[in-house]
Each structure stands twice: as C-alpha cells, then as structure tokens.
C-alpha cells in the first residue's frame, strides 16, 4: 500500500503542519490561535497517544463560526448576525 494518498483524496485527520496550511496560516500562528481557542484542540491518536491530529471537519466548523457563517454552540443565530443578514 502506498504511503501517500491520491491527490484527490483529502485526509480527515491532519497533522499540525497540514492543519496550519489548511487554514492558511504559519505553524506558529496556528499554535497561538489554537491556544486562544480560535481552532479546536488536537486529538491524541496512535498506540501511545503521542500523535496529535486535527479533524478537518472541526476546523471547517470553527472557520464557519469565526467568519459568521454559523453561530457558536450555545449562541443563538440572532446573536451572531453579520452585515450580510441585513441585505
């Protein structure tokens, strides 16, 4: 079995480097934004629990909240209105 995925197949779980690239920031910026809560915390995986990965769909959900496309959990849709709602 090959070690790499076909280019058309996006993995569900991303390494730290892949997650930073996926959201379009440097690794250092990604680490800071994870610490501030903008992005979700990593999942520990592997037999010894040392492999840190980020769920691509969780990153998408966090980006939706950050951009105002979706309300944060526990927040009403009205509270997260943006200027596009007024058009």
List the main descriptive attributes of the protein structure presented here.
Arc Repressor Mutant, subunit A, 87 residues, single chain, globular, alpha+beta, 3 helices, 3-stranded antiparallel beta sheet
Task: Provide an overview of this structure.
The chain is of the alpha+beta class. It has a domain at 13-70: Arc Repressor Mutant, subunit A. It is built from three helices and three strands, in the order βααββα. It has a three-stranded antiparallel beta sheet with strand order 1-3-2. Helix 1 packs across helix 2. The mean pLDDT is 86.
For the termini, the CA-CA separation is 52 Å
What's the helix-strand series?
Answer: EHHEEH
At CATH level 3, the topology of the domain at 13-70 is: Arc Repressor Mutant, subunit A
Main sheet strand line-up: 1-3-2
Strand composition percent: 5-15%
Shape, please?
A: globular
The CATH class label of the domain at 13-70 is Mainly Alpha
Helix/strand-derived category reads alpha+beta
- What's the helical proportion of residues? 25-40%
Low confidence ranges: none
Rg estimate, integer Å: 16 Å
With helices defined by DSSP (H or I, 4 residues minimum), what is the helix count?
A: 3
- Corresponding CATH architecture of the domain at 13-70: Orthogonal Bundle
Residue-averaged pLDDT: 86
Could you give a short account of the major beta sheet? 3 strands, antiparallel
């Amino acid at each position: 079995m090959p070690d790499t995925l076909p280019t058309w197949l996006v993995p569900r779980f991303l390494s730290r480097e892949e997650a930073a690239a996926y959201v379009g920031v440097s690794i250092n910026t990604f680490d800071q934004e994870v610490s501030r809560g903008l992005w979700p915390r990593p999942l520990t995986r592997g037999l010894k629990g040392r492999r840190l990965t980020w769920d691509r769909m969780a990153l998408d959900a966090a980006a939706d909240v950050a951009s105002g496309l979706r309300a944060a959990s526990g927040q009403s849709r009205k509270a997260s209105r943006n200027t596009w709602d007024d058009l």
